[in-house]
Amino acid sequence: MRMPSSDILVIGGGPAGIQAARGIADLGYKAIVVEKRDRLGGMPDEAGYAALTPDMRDTGEAIAEMVAPILDNPGVELRFGTTATACTGVAGDFNVTLQKADGAAEDICVGSVIICTGFKHFDPGRETQQYGYYQYDDVITLVDCERMLKAKNFVRPSNGEVPERVCFIQCVGSRDRQIGNEYCSKVCCGVASKEAIEIRQQVPGCRVFVFYIDMRMYGYWENEIYWPAQEKYKVNYVKGIATEVVRKGDKLIVKGEDTTLRRPMEVPMDMVILSVGMEPSEGTEAMAKVFGVKQNKYRFIETIGGALDTVSTTVSGIFAAGACTGPADLEDSTSSGGAAAMKAIACVRKANTQIPA
Amino acid sequence: MRMPSSDILVIGGGPAGIQAARGIADLGYKAIVVEKRDRLGGMPDEAGYAALTPDMRDTGEAIAEMVAPILDNPGVELRFGTTATACTGVAGDFNVTLQKADGAAEDICVGSVIICTGFKHFDPGRETQQYGYYQYDDVITLVDCERMLKAKNFVRPSNGEVPERVCFIQCVGSRDRQIGNEYCSKVCCGVASKEAIEIRQQVPGCRVFVFYIDMRMYGYWENEIYWPAQEKYKVNYVKGIATEVVRKGDKLIVKGEDTTLRRPMEVPMDMVILSVGMEPSEGTEAMAKVFGVKQNKYRFIETIGGALDTVSTTVSGIFAAGACTGPADLEDSTSSGGAAAMKAIACVRKANTQIPA
């Protein structure tokens, strides 16, 4: 009988995957990281985030710091432009087929797998959400806004002018039963408030409104983002539900209900920013199928054990960390990446002990 | 030169500490767990939680499952009725003085330390919060309520009668600048809503109100707790700020402002439940001093590296996990417990490699 492998396959090179790979190497095991893109960093890099929430640290700098320990690390093998397409075997002895973009395939033997394939942003043109994202140039998403802020070029896409009034509409694609996403995406309140502050910093003459159901700046974000946004940067938070965006001449009209004043509202804006939530990425959905792990009703990967185990899946030896298991902030991803590395190593140790050579 | 120790000291036997100890043992290292109480389980056990948020799983059962892997485990040494009182040395070679309740002291040598000393509930009698907790028997906290629900004895403490109207007041000791706790405690919205459901289950005739600023049921809690509370259990959520509780005859009168209706409110209740937030436990404050790690402005232990590292402290080789670093839910605690075990093992491995025997 051949020896099972003690190598661990990490799928996805974002924050959770980087943290997991680092932990595996630090403990003397080998991590094989496959990433479909040609670089590490995951969504913060791919989407071009300007600054991280809540500390507003430069994203590029933070990612470079995060990535450094796994570059030129003998315990980490990086494979870019690669995905996993098939898996057979059991915990301690998986055979996984890796495929490059050019179609070249290779089978590798690993003892355990950690899926870290993250999320994608909700597409605001999908289904019942009708905020005119694909109709009006001046309706953008949190991600578009982030890119503009990073380029220090926060202007109206329609005419290049500096906006005088912009608003964020919260919970686009989250807390929405009509589209089936009942969950809260956790980070959009904080991200919107961070961007609201940055808009006020870059375009001090622009008034900024946030239409929200509940502002969810949990933990320290309350003090780090929410209070400064209101007090120092005079962002206007309006508890209200925006149901429609229409164009009127040169302006966008946001229609809805101001739930504090309990009356319909129709407010003119130069730009509308949709706070899009999280959905499972294509990679997450594909890996769930390749590795046969159960997905929850939102198609994120289901972890078992409730709050007592955030990284084990329905298949022994296959773990998941970060936003592929559901809405997660960066802290969640780095913590669960570390916890998953721990469980994956424990798994290969156990398999090596139990199976005779 | 003597060999540095590769044992790891885990301080605190709650969810984060249990998870850390388990991880350490699973990877072939030895965890020495010191716990000041005479049993494991931490705050969920000490405070007598009835059921866990959000899945309403029986707490005793969940804790037993969590604890089992570290009982009779050769990789885990449990020391009850014990605290750490002094520490000298450096990462890889710490000398820690442990003291039993009877005063007996012993020095041990460990390579790394993980502090998991958790939080305490805000004392609603302290400072400016004047909801009459120490004046009126029928004003209780989330923790008191949990105990009554566990005993299936949800009655008015003042007269033993079944209440007809009860309310929760959110953010007691959280999001409160007057007392200096600007942070959000993360879990109280979910816990209050869970208890509201349980009250409706145990006392179907009782109306339940929740006075809140923002309801923060992030992630899946939205669908698991918030929707059922509103729809199936008819809990009444009122966006409003309660400023005072006074007694009038047999009733408690909650005074404040209904911010949706924008008018003062004065509502009679049979019982008032204060949703008390998290503050650092005495153990957390004591351990910060013993190990010389920096505390943040709220006196929780400060982790360094922002979102990229949730468990490293200002002292190399000393890590922290769970609610001793700030408000945390159970998922946060189990994830960070695992991540801390990983970092602590990496630390002792590195020290063993670098220091010649």
CATH topology of the largest domain in chain A: FAD/NAD(P)-binding domain
Low-confidence stretches of chain A: none
E-strand count of chain A: 17
Q: Which H/E pattern describes the elements of chain A? A: EHEHHEEEEEEEHEHEHEEEEEHEH
Question: What structural category characterises the helix and strand content of chain A?
Answer: alpha/beta
Shape of chain A: elongated
Q: What's the helix count of chain A?
A: 8
Strand order of the largest sheet of chain A: 9-15-10-11-12-13-14
Reported for the largest beta sheet of chain A, the result is: 7 strands, mixed
Estimate the mean pLDDT confidence of chain A: 94
Structural key phrases:
homodimer, FAD/NAD(P)-binding domain, seven-stranded mixed beta sheet, elongated, five-stranded parallel beta sheet, 27% helix, 357 residues, alpha/beta, 17 strands, 8 helices
How would the blueprint of this fold be written?
Two copies of one chain form a homodimer.
Chain A: E1 8-11, H1 15-26, E2 31-35, H2 42-46, H3 59-67, E3 76-80, E4 82-90, E5 93-100, E6 105-110, E7 112-115, E8 119-121, E9 139-141, H4 142-150, E10 165-172, H5 188-202, E11 207-212, H6 221-231, E12 236-248, E13 251-258, E14 263-269, E15 271-276, E16 278-280, H7 282-291, E17 318-320, H8 330-354
Parallel strand pairs in A: 1-2, 1-7, 2-3, 7-17, 9-15, 10-11, 10-15, 11-12
Antiparallel strand pairs in A: 4-5, 5-6, 8-16, 12-13, 13-14
